[in-house]
Amino acid sequence: MRALETATGKRLLGTPMIRRAIVRYAIVAAIGNLMWEVFQLPLFTLWQTARPGYLAFAVFHCWVGDLLITLFSLGLGVLAVGRSWPSRDYLQVAIVTLLLGLAYTVFSEWLNVEVRGSWGYASAMPRVPLLGTGLSPLLQWVVVPLVAFTWARPSIALTGRPRP
Asked: pTM here?
């Protein structure tokens, strides 16, 4: 597979270490987000009102959105603070990526629950005071990225250097 290149001929996805970290991050995030979407279904009103086929569609739809948010947040995190990522600035990129995912989640949950009414929270969904956002979606954007960043971080075997 040939790496993407910019107009100047610079590789967009850089070194094999960068590609490996992105792929590892994306795989873990994809698995984690899919599991999270399935397990949090009972915390939404859809669980009680929709047919199984629509529930499957809803999980798939949300999971694809999660993947887009995941990769977009990582890309912005790398551009903002970690152009040497993953060999350096690892923690800074993780923090910015996590904050971007959380910010988008708060906005999306507000827009879709309060404004559009696209989905609703079941009474079992704990809500964060002041924000009104469901706790489960917020935790998803903390737990899944942290696990993915932990798994994606280059090890001594990959870089020849110990982790700082």
From this structure: 0.84
